[in-house]
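Handoff note, outgoing to incoming analyst
You'll be picking up this chain. Sequence as last confirmed:
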Amino acid sequence: MQTDTIAAIATAMASAGIGIIRISGTDAIQVADQVFCSKQNKALKDCESHTIHYGWIKEDGIVIDEVLVMLMKAPHSYTREDTVEINCHGGVLVMKKVLETVLRHGARPAEPGEFTKRAFLNGRMDLTQAEAVIDLINSKNDFAWKSAVNQLQGTVLNKIKSLRERLIHETAWIESAVDDPEHYDLDGYGEHLESVVAKLKQEIQHLLDQSDQGRVLKEGIHTVIVGKPNVGKSSLLNVLVGSQRAIVTDVAGTTRDVLEEQINLHGIQLNIIDTAGIRNTDDIVEKIGVDRAKQYLEDADLVLYVIDGSRTLSEEDQEIVNMIQGKKVIALINKSDLEQQAEWKQLEFITNHVIAISAKNGDGIEELTDRIRELFLQGEVSFNDEVIITNIRHKNALLSALESLDLVEESIQTGMPEDFYTLDLMNAYEVLGKIIGESVEDDLADEIFSKFCMGK
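Most recent structure output, in case you need it:
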């Protein structure tokens, strides 16, 4: 375990009212005492923990900045190490100079996420809580924010601990009975274990059933706008974004590449892509845009199929219909302010979600929002006692645990000896342990924390 002293700028590298330089490690207080001059001429090592001190950062008698210094002594700090936070003025140059001064007096630059990594390694938080820190920082909608807060408070940790406690209890009982058959009776135990395993599987499956919904609501719904040229795709994007993000003309093929935007519709984030109109074309640049549109469709969570309701079906429409089969599709009959072609009513064979809109006037956008909620929110999301899995790493571990419990059930039903049960029970136990970091490889931990910002 690393105990050397690290330092980094913990606030954004941009002009602001305040900047924070964080120092943590065995010599954090000693390093800070070398550069900080308190107005009371009192060394930080002689001060009580969780106190704030006014003074100056100096080097060779030269004042670098006027600061407030927060002192937190181990183990009562974020990292459970001695920690000092220098609150300086928030200019980029000032923060850099304060950090450089700290580094010259015994600290080394922190790696990305190293403060939180130390908090995890020192038992301050489990791995799910550490991951919640970066999720909270990166949250872009209400669901992502609240989900991260709940995970940081231990909702996922407590659920996984509960599952593991029941697994290890049954494993310990079997092993005790095998070692001491005179005092532990295994008659009828298979039926009992089958009931326990069924309950565990039900709870894990419930977590898995909500994981896809949790992922799209946390990361945003990957949404692709498709349609023939000049049907109003770019106009729809502009209405959703609330600005003239895309160029709109009467000339077919104006959009030749993809445009990407993130928008928030009443708490639901759409990662929305406006694609080139899908048609056969000899224009090389436009053809590249059409090919990209088809590629983005492969990974789309939601397809907004825009149709000009005043025009009739064509071969290009049939090609688009073939491409979006099996996807979650909302068909938008645009230009509802014009006379409509009746044949568009046949779109129910593609999707149950057909909405008449006018991208020009903004009509139908509220109904579109309601349909998106209907597709991706199975009822209102409750955060009171609900554990919602939003991390693909957690989901994969739960799937592995479920497979192990399936094998336990199979062993019971085929009449295998009881000691066979423990192999798969322990495998489920260990796989779930990886979620909370009980048994995590160094490479995985390094990968997780490398995604953090430098000062966190």
